[in-house]
Specification:
By secondary structure, the protein is mostly helical. The chain has one domain (3-63). 89% of the residues lie in helices and 0% in strands. It has helices at 3-25, 29-62. The longest helix is centred in the C-terminal third of the chain and has 34 residues, at 29-62.
């Protein structure tokens, strides 16, 4: 796993939390939810290949 992915996830987390707080305080809670949801989706799309590789390695390890 690359170290840069951890920094990318952290940056997205900070950006999403700041944007969500700004939108919530301005009364736009629906947009704050959409920002949070889109941040979650972006991070999941980055992590899914690593999870797939992990399960593939475990399958090869136990020869299933």
């Amino acid at each position: 796993m690359e170290v840069s992915i951890i920094f990318k996830i952290g940056a997205v987390g900070i950006l999403v939390s700041v944007l969500s707080q700004i939108l919530k305080h301005s009364g736009r809670e629906e947009q704050a939810f959409l920002v949070s949801f889109s941040g979650l989706l972006v991070v999941l799309f980055w992590i899914v290949p690593y999870i797939y590789e992990l399960f593939k390695n475990i399958q090869q390890l136990f020869v299933l």
